[in-house]
Amino acid sequence: MSKDSFKVINIRVTFKNIPIHKIASFSFKDVAAACETFKKIPGISECVIVQTASRVEIFTVNSYEGDEVPDARRDEGKGLVLNKIKETWVSLTELDQYDIDHFDQILEVYINTDVYLHLLRLASGLDSIVVGNETILDELKNSIATAKQAKVSGKILNRLFDSSIRI
Questions:
Q1: Helix locations, the chain, DSSP H
Q2: Out of 66-70, 79-83, 103-107, 117-121, which region has the weakest mean confidence (pLDDT)?
Q3: Which of 55, 94, 161, 164 has its CA 20 to 30 Å from the CA of residue 127?
Q4: Element counts in the chain: helices (H) and strands (E)
């Protein structure tokens, strides 16, 4: 992919937006299979899922949709990759109707440079329940190793995660 033909997206549910006991309902039973399912969405070429007790995060590399993105709530926005990710997430988990109805308010979405900055904060423990918690670094290493083994990550996410872990 050339420099301008893709974007990196991070979509997540964390302890900051919902109570910790509710995060389990947003979790995937089989992370590798979930990554495979997300990769089947047209436009997604790579996927890594970071899943802990306090967060569920999906990192994807998508084909670039252009500058003029329609409103996701209108009919012309229903085909956007972000909406397809949300639909797939709901289909792979056991969410109750309340969570489905409020999914847009629960999710956080970062794109491109913000994803890298978030991943650096996450790897350093700054974005943990307990600031400075180092166990997240091991969880990031396990997540990228699982994605590499399942062949759902690629050059872009591998480099992003490897550099964040190394730094």
A1: 20-23, 31-39, 81-92, 97-101, 103-106, 113-123, 135-150, 155-166
A2: 66-70
A3: 94
A4: 8, 4
Q: Which element (helix H / strand E) includes 63?
A: strand 55-63
Confidence of residue 101 (pLDDT cuts 50, 70, 90): confident
Query: How many CA atoms lie within 13 Å of 155's alpha carbon, on the beta-carbon side?
Result: 4
Distance (Å, rounded) from C-alpha 85 to C-alpha 110? 14
Q: How far apart are CA 17 and CA 28, in angstroms?
A: 18
20-37 core/surface letters (b: 16 or more CB in 10 A; e: else): eebbeebbbeebbebbeb
Distance CA 95, CA 88 (A): 12
Task: Please determine, for residue 59, whether its predicted confidence score (pLDDT) is greater than 60.
Answer: yes
